[in-house]
Amino acid sequence: MAKETQWFGYGSRIIITTQDQRLLSAHGISHIYKLNLPATDEALQILCLYAFGQNSPDLMSIRFRSKVPPHDGFKKLAMEFTQLAGELPLGLRVMGSYLRGMSLGEWEDALPRLRTGLDGEIGEIERTLRFSYDALSYRDKALFLHIACLFHGFRADHVKQWLANSGLDVNHGLEVLTRKSLKTSNVGFLGMHSLLQQLGVDIVRKESIREPGKRQFLVDVDDISDVITDNAVRPCIMLNISKIEDALVVEESVFDGMTNLQLLRWDYCPLRVWPSTFSTKFLVELIMRGSKFEKLWEGIQELPNLSNATNLESFLLSFCTSLLEIPSSVGNGTSLKTLDLSCTSLVNLPSSICNATSLEKLILSGCSRLKTSRDHHKHPRAQSE
């Protein structure tokens, strides 16, 4: 539209807005300003302008029937909706317009639905955000979904490591997502706006609404609980067991279908004995903090020998307060770099730990019951913390 700057009079100022930074640099535009989200107070005012026609709830303009004082009730909910919109002007406008004219009770009823999806009455948000997603290549789409469902808030270098053999061309893909404003990076950690993250979760959820076990990722706690207890097909799972209010019974067979698992993060895992059928062939990182393990495995027939886990680099078992000892095969982890055994009940370390020649960090914080013996030598390369 503006091919030559000579088309405009002297002193003209041309402002171009785009989500793709590469478009600017490709056309020689060097004065680039990154527009930040509005401050929380300003975002609240934007929501209220569309919801009430003014920048805050007003007693005289709202008809209500509630035990909650109207101003305080609406203001509290307005702040929750502002947070739900991630302070994004688009989300604030659409949500505010949707809520306009509703009573306090209707606001309260709408909140749970809007927390779980971007479709329905606020579908404009999904359509607008999805426009950028649909323009991505299939590899970049897959990487976007990985971050939205699994790796939001994780270190970028760890994610690159975990997805090194995924065929997603992660380094280039992260650059693409950053250029198109679909991903942020803060001190080496991957980030994503809350509405974009919700978009990714919704896309995966719609892969199979009625059968969660057929989705490529599981994020929702209730869906994960159903899939685990029903012994259904297991996709990639990111689960914090502390978010499940009811007791969750987990059978050992839950891991039977996870033959290609690269990352297992299951804080507060309720299992007491490690599953004998668990495959470690492709495992890169194992995080089981605060778990209830008493034994990782036992018996020769049940031993998932870590010599088969040739890709395993991190083994984190901190705060597993019931764990007394670890098996001798831990020394067979040829790629093992970090071993965190900060377990207050840990009594013995196997002498085979000296065979883990790649080990760089051995963490034994709080292991006050740990005994030493003549065959327990300090690893030549490990840094004890």
TrEMBL record:
Domain Disease resistance protein Roq1-like winged-helix: 139-208
Superkingdom of the organism of origin: Eukaryota
GO BP term, pick one: defense response
Presence of the UniProt keyword Repeat in the record: yes
InterPro entries from the UniProt entry: Apaf_helical, Disease_R_plants, Leu-rich_rpt_3, LRR_dom_sf, P-loop_NTPase, WH_DNA-bd_sf, WHD_ROQ1-like
UniProt keyword list: Leucine-rich repeat, Repeat
Pfam families reported in the protein's UniProt record: LRR_3, WHD_ROQ1
Protein name, as recorded: Disease resistance protein Roq1-like winged-helix domain-containing protein
Species, as recorded: Brassica carinata
